[in-house]
Predict the 3D structure of the following.
Amino acid sequence: MALIVQKYGGTSVGSTERIKNVAKRVAKWKAAGYDMVVVVSAMSGETNRLIALAKEIQPHPDPRELDVVAATGEQVTIGLLAMALMELGLKARSYTGSQVRVLTDHAYNKARILEIDESNIRRDLKDGYVAVVAGFQGVDRDGNVTTLGRGGSDTSGVAFAAALKADECQIYTDVDGVYTTDPRIVPEAQRLKTITFEEMLEMASLGSKVLQIRSVEFAGKYKVRLRVLSSLTPPELPIAEEAVSGTLITFEEDADMEQALVSGVAFNRDEAKVTVVGVPDTPGIAYQILDPIAEANIEVDVIVQNIGRDGLTDFSFTTHRNDLKKTLDILERVRKHVGAREVIGDDKICKVGLVGVGMRSHVGVASKMFRALAEEGINIQMISTSEIKITVVIDEKYMELAVRVLHKTFDLDQPR
Amino acid sequence: MALIVQKYGGTSVGSTERIKNVAKRVAKWKAAGYDMVVVVSAMSGETNRLIALAKEIQPHPDPRELDVVAATGEQVTIGLLAMALMELGLKARSYTGSQVRVLTDHAYNKARILEIDESNIRRDLKDGYVAVVAGFQGVDRDGNVTTLGRGGSDTSGVAFAAALKADECQIYTDVDGVYTTDPRIVPEAQRLKTITFEEMLEMASLGSKVLQIRSVEFAGKYKVRLRVLSSLTPPELPIAEEAVSGTLITFEEDADMEQALVSGVAFNRDEAKVTVVGVPDTPGIAYQILDPIAEANIEVDVIVQNIGRDGLTDFSFTTHRNDLKKTLDILERVRKHVGAREVIGDDKICKVGLVGVGMRSHVGVASKMFRALAEEGINIQMISTSEIKITVVIDEKYMELAVRVLHKTFDLDQPR
């Protein structure tokens, strides 16, 4: 019997009415013959309420005890959803992370899953039960409650699908899938019926926050077939329609049709650009610049260093705008140390990226992209490329224009 | 090192401010050199909120899932109290019922504790930690969450004290001890510095609801020294004063002084009286009357049957007023079956009882009691006695008068 793991976020279980709707949707899949495991988040607002209580007691709550408190949010939801399923005449049983058990490391508030013992759930499925599991939480080897950190229930969903070798992991959210770009910027943006894991990762890192990036990595690692679906469709939607709605995230090697050249246009304007000008072009210079940045826990994204001239080179990277001042302070010290000429910061930039596994074998994509931007008079400040992504850094005032132009240039506004 | 188990109810932990006060009180005892284990309830209102959510989903919530949901109430409190203790510079660690573990039977919503594994807590105490434990909950052999039912955290407190062989179990409530009678009826009522378990049981069953009766039974069974204390005193109260405040519940054999004849006057007006008149006085008749009542899950309290006359007898008992109609309906069928003359119900009655281990060897107590009531013109409808209790059923309009008269007659208004 085919097995499906469904994951519902906080908004989807935000009230007892919505929990009843989730039960209806699960019952529909069960009636269609699927074995069902359902992973749920805390009711929306609940985790924030619990954390606020903790902070009233301790401004910086003890990590172990914070997890004890926060984990109750999901525990309430699993009990309520199991009841709602029973009310519809189904057999259902709830599990906390410790009851499953979901073994994690000891990192409270941001634990990583080490192992899922699926034996209890297997037994339940065999007996015709729907298993309802608390996302976001686990237990360490010493029996302490742990949580996976914010948004971790996407990862829980995928982890259960991997452990149970589910046929599909369905993540229900308040959007109905992954789009070629943000429809708020390009109204013609099209929903992608499929996208590969690699593309999804590149889209996510550039700001298309449909799924937690960690859950996508996890799915890729364990080859979990992942589908993003809307929890806003009526629960009565015929299963044949729901089964193919949303966006399916596939493995590249699964692709049974010719890949589109480009799948989407991603963008991000949360970053700032930093350049160290006139750096002596000697071995180890990149390390000397970046190590103090990493030491300060500042995340760095695009890094570009071009070939040197006259024994000097320029070294650029982007970082989050909030970290710009801190970064410049650190680099000023570095500048003196390495004898560079100048450090320049610019927070009026944005990143725009083309993503697509199909571009791998098509060198023409880059030149077509650069020409399209040039025709609009958009100057490119930095370029960075990977196998399936081309990212440019441009003046932020051109962001919407660049996204629209690229979306049209690569025919992304055509129905797919 | 002396070990104390303290138990705080929902009102005592009803807000983060109150939780901080509990932490101060615990810290004071710890500073005085005691090893401390603290058992807590859910924040007041929280259990009701959770049950209401469950009932929105299922009018009669599934018992297993209801426990999953309800148990989160205490889990939040333990985390918050552990944080509050840390904020005061103490080492503290929280435990859910399953983490301890508190092994119970499988009876969801009203489970009974089978065994407490105290090894984790012992280790913590040895390392100087305050152990903060969720009351009201446990786990069955299959790892399912169970709850002990309403008010069960008093029982949890006593059970932990028993398992850990604590020197004392302190139950903090919103009253400061057990009184000779209800001070709302007799303003001169005196707080008892000590009371025996047997007396406490008799007081509780007659309506002095300071402690859950089950917790008192448990304490008696495992010889746990139990003290009821007020959580309304300032947490800064010197330990020497707090240590002897409230009421200590002792074992009869501990008594190192002459027992008072009478310890208190209990009363209850929630009951109704039922009499089956003119019952054939044959063997098995009591069974034939009471068995259908028990079958209907109706609880029966005082039962009186006097000697028969002319082959007939009258059979009376009391039951809760809410069950009177149901009881009369059942007895009407029984009446026809056994050939009794008549069934009479009366819900305008009350019970008043004298309690005291000292009365055991003093036959004069009963006659003194009956004379005092007679002098006030109070007619006694039923009398029932046990070793340490004399209960009378009288017209409810005389209740306050009877309580006041008996309280004075037995010198209970003298400071003790």
In short: The first helix of chain A runs from residue 16 to 31. The two ends of chain A are 31 Å apart (CA to CA).
